[in-house]
Amino acid sequence: MSELFTTFSNYLHDVFVMQLDGWVILGFVAQGFFTMRFVVQWIASERARKSVIPVAFWFFSIGGGALLLVYALYRRDPVFIAGQALGLLVYFRNLYFIVVNGRQSSAGD
Question: Are 33 and 64 in contact (CB under 8 A)?
Fold first, then answer.
């Protein structure tokens, strides 16, 4: 059991300490932006007592998605690159609809 703990501890040290650099910090900042979109959506829905997607959700999506795309490009991860690039298209398209329509509407409107 002690050997398993040591192996796991060494793994965590390698991943979270030895590999820590500016790019990893950028990745964490980007992930923070991406996480904030869910927090914003949750708070807005709780206040409205129904599912709501505020405009801030899309701004956090774009900010987090763009930073994560930069991080993925640096890491040369094709799966991560494709996922973030395609997601950005959706986020920008939704923001475009909000700007063009002047307001948000739900599927039930």
Answer: yes
24 found inside a domain:
yes
Q: What is the pLDDT of residues 49-76, one digit of tens each?
A: 998 899 999 999 999 999 999 999 999 9
The answer to whether the predicted template modeling score (pTM) of the entire model surpasses 0.85 is no
Quote the domain boundaries for residue 60: 20-101
The answer to the question of residue 6 being in a domain is no
30-to-1, 47, 58, 103 alpha-carbon distances in Å: 36, 26, 14, 27
Residue 82 placed within a domain? yes
Closest to 97 measured CA to CA, from 67, 62, 58, 64? 58
* Cβ-Cβ contacts under 8 Å for 69 (sequence gap 6 or more): 81, 84, 85, 88
Question: Domain count of the chain?
Answer: 1
In a domain, 11, yes or no: no
